[in-house]
Design a protein that fits this description.
Elements lengths: L1 H28 L7 H20 L8 H23 L8 H33 L6 H18 L9 H23 L6
Amino acid sequence: MIGEILRFILDIVFTLIGAVLLARAWLHAVKLHPFNPISQAIIQATNWLVTPLRRVVPTGGGTDWASLLGALIVAVVYLVLLWLVSTTSMLPVKLIPGVLGAGFATVARWALNLIVWLTLIQAVLSWMNPMATIMPVLRTMTGPLLEPIRRIMPNLGGFDLSPIVLLILAQIAIMVVNRITYQLFPLFIL
């Protein structure tokens, strides 16, 4: 019982930290203005890890490598803590490559879940309150993913089905990542 509670808490805390780190990298990639209040909140929430990593891994080529490395580090720590909570034994050294591989898969899963949540929030807000102050940020973040779908989808006279298509594609990708993770790293599906 306590193990399940600890796993639940670890899952929530580390998924949120990983998602915020990935959001920071995403905001950098879509070039959202750094003085936007949402950007400021994300930057302040992640500076504790990204700032020291920037000394080692500089940002370059439009990619915030420090934030991505931070997400990978958080994923590896998460998996090791899950291992410790589930097995109450130290992680064998021979499993370290598996932890790194499962860490990459965990980051991919977090990124896909971030896409799902941002798309869902944008879709709901577009129906409920299209003038919400967060809508420009959501449009900026999801725009690069939705635009290619909109070019392919037929125009249905005001009905934009591209978010539904993106949600379906993201869910399929999550299933694929989960299957690959299970097949390659079964010890880390705890």
